Amino acid sequence: MNCPRIVIIGGGAGGLELASRLGNKLGRNSGSNNRAHITLVDKNHTHIWKPLLHEVATGTLDVEIDQLSYRAHAAAHHFEFQLGSLTDINRDQQQVILAPIEDDGEEVLASRALEYDYLVLAIGSVSNHFNTPGVAEHCIFLDSPEQAQRFQHYLLMAYLKLNSPAHPKDKLNIAIVGAGATGVELAAELYHAAAELNLYGYADLRQNRLNIQLIEAGPRILPALPERIALAAHKELTKLGVTVRTSTKVTAATKTGLLLDEQHVEAELMVWAAGIKAPDFLKDIAGLENNRINQLVVNQQLQTTRDAKIYAIGDCAGCPLPDNKWVPPRAQSAHQMASLVAKNIIADIAGKPQKDYHYKDHGSLISLSRFGTVGSLMGNLVGGAMMIEGRIARLAYMSLYRMHQVALHGWLRMILISLVARINRIVRPKLKLH
Ligand SMILES: Cc1cc2nc3c(=O)[nH]c(=O)nc-3n(C[C@H](O)[C@H](O)[C@H](O)COP(=O)(O)OP(=O)(O)OC[C@H]3O[C@@H](n4cnc5c(N)ncnc54)[C@H](O)[C@@H]3O)c2cc1C
To answer: In angstroms, what is the span from residue 15 Cα to ligand 1's centroid?
Structure first.
């Protein structure tokens, strides 16, 4: 194949790492003889690593400072970036169809088609509200940086109201539905933000004026993690003041709160973080196979089961495990899948056999903001599963993001970026305040 066209849709935890790897290996000016034309398509101009969204939501991370420009990154890593949103795939023509781009209701770019020889879908997931009445209208989701920023805006407004004589209120009520990693981390981060905001003149904003309810349908928090970790996190959250309600199902959301069977829980802010699904438009797209949550079912080489030229990675991929479960939707899965698909596409272009994907669970870490980090590390090095806490856990947690940065920029640049972040922590406010 003469200069094959590789199109990657979605520049998140998986897609951006893949584009960077392929660009460095096969892109124009990369020095490779086996060149390819690599195009990354994303609906946004910039990338922010999704596991940081709860920090964006509370203002502890400023998107303006931490985001990465796709265009600048593409130029440095020998691939092309196109702004666009995937709407359909024409498998016969080997084309992806991108939606028109509009600005202020005016069409800037008409709908267009991009041709591919290899297509990789890496468009991530969205929150699954299981059609619970009122949730789509009244709850906030943390699926994108825009949603996280909107939450931060509502949070600051709610704090202002709390101190306004016109709306005298004793407490700010926040309900978080879903006690997985997102819900648990957000709850802790909110207490941290409250303490910081106090320092910046949000008068009389003591932590005891926060009323956070964390609601989980299952019998315990962090259902995907070992029980010991869940217990440690539960204890820490309770100490902070979070009301943890397990075995509690939300039946509806209203303008003023949540309905739990017959009980109404008042809340000014409601966050829905109870499960994920692949975006609805992936269901039956181009006749590809889906599972129950719209993910595209892939084989062990991560090719979709009905089209070997289309791969899927990360949260939008349904990759079966030997025990009849699916590879969990996590950043480490997306990272591992990106590495394998890069190798497989390079092998296929060179006419060599592709390798199988084997999910490796390296453990799970939960950050309870500055109040602590708990988690488990898995692997040969620690002889199975080992629970870790405190500083070591914090370091391991930070290393997840650092590994993502290394995959994107290499070690030297990652160290420089970390240094800049440290300096920013000294010279800038500790919280985004607007
Ligand atoms: C608050 C939060 C905390 C989390 N914490 C952790 C954690 O601690 N550890 C962990 O392992 N995992 C964590 N996760 C899960 C982790 O973020 C995801 O599993 C991971 O980001 C999935 O990577 P991905 O590449 O599949 O998708 P994403 O990283 O979500 O990237 C998808 C990309 O596709 C783009 N896109 C979407 N639709 C389209 C379209 N139609 N056309 C073009 N582009 C499109 C998006 O703009 C985005 O850039 C967390 C998630 C959240 C929300």
So the answer is: 10
